[in-house]
Amino acid sequence: MSMRVNGAGTGTDTRVRPGVEGDLAELTRIYNHYVVETPVTFDTEPFTVERRRPWLTSHPDHGPHRLLVAEQGGAVLGYATSSAFRPKQAYSTSVETSVYLAPEQTGRGVGSLLYASLFKALEHEDVRQVLAGVTLPNEASQRLHLSFGFQPVGVFRDVGRKFGAYWDVAWFQRPL
Ligand SMILES: CC(C)(COP(=O)(O)OP(=O)(O)OC[C@H]1O[C@@H](n2cnc3c(N)ncnc32)[C@H](O)[C@@H]1OP(=O)(O)O)[C@@H](O)C(=O)NCCC(=O)NCCS
Q1: CA-based end-to-end distance of the chain
Q2: What's the 115 CA to ligand 1 centre distance in angstroms?
Q3: Cβ contacts of residue 108 below 8 Å, gap of 6+?
Q4: Is 123 in the pocket of ligand 1 (CB under 6 A)?
Q5: In the chain, what's the furthest Cα-to-Cα distance?
Q6: Kind of pairing between the strands at 165-175 and 75-84
Q7: Where are the beta strands (DSSP E) in 31-164?
């Protein structure tokens, strides 16, 4: 699957495609920024590329668990995933989505482009519900989820400890 949209950011074509092995170093670098600098993810130790590989291979280019990458002029701008929500079998029709952009690429529509592409890719998969957890505060992510039709379903208080503080996570849900 590949989707081209002219208009995210500079006007040059931004292409969305499945993530591949050749993206792994850059995707790890992008994620590690949020691991080390922010509470948006509850991983606390940066990944080596090698340790991040199982994450890549658990998101093939078919099925309910996808990895899509936004690319412009050969540069990776960010990525979105749909992943297993919880491991028990009856949860298999629920996926958890997330999206991370290189920090300098935020606020110009790339996150929305990735989510639009991801939901299109999942259209014919056996997925009924999409869930997403957002560490608070994160206005951009909350607005992104609301604009894609997610409903807020509640806030888990103080469920993560990072940087010596406890963090709330707002959960969102939408049918596919
Ligand atoms: C969250 C993120 C994926 C959103 O993608 P984005 O490309 O920046 O967002 P878009 O430009 O597509 O805009 C989506 C919505 O967020 C809003 N938004 C974007 N940046 C914002 C900011 N800095 N502050 C407040 N709102 C913001 C937009 O106005 C838009 O809302 P609207 O539809 O109500 O107008 C991106 O900012 C990001 O990667 N942030 C860091 C990592 C992260 O927090 N990931 C999510 C983990 S749950």
Answers
A1: 18
A2: 11
A3: 8, 9
A4: no
A5: 44
A6: unpaired
A7: 67-72, 75-84, 94-101, 129-135, 151-162
Taking CA atoms, 175 is separated from 24, 47, 94, 122, 149, in Å, by 30, 32, 9, 12, 9
Chain centroid offset of residue 3 CA = 17
Sole residue written with tokens 């890549």:
56
Residue 138 Cβ inside 6 Å of ligand 1? The answer reads: yes
Cα of 98 to ligand 1 centre, how many Å?
12
Q: What is the predicted pLDDT for the residue at 122?
A: 97
Give the number of residues written for the chain. 176
CATH of domain 3-127: 3.40.630.30
- Per-residue model confidence as pLDDT tens digits over 7-16: 444 456 999 9
Segment 138-168, tens digit of pLDDT: 999 999 999 999 999 999 999 999 999 999 9
Give the C-alpha distances (Å, rounded to integers) separating 26 from 56, 69, 117, 118, 147.
12, 11, 20, 20, 28
Chain centroid offset of residue 39 CA: 15
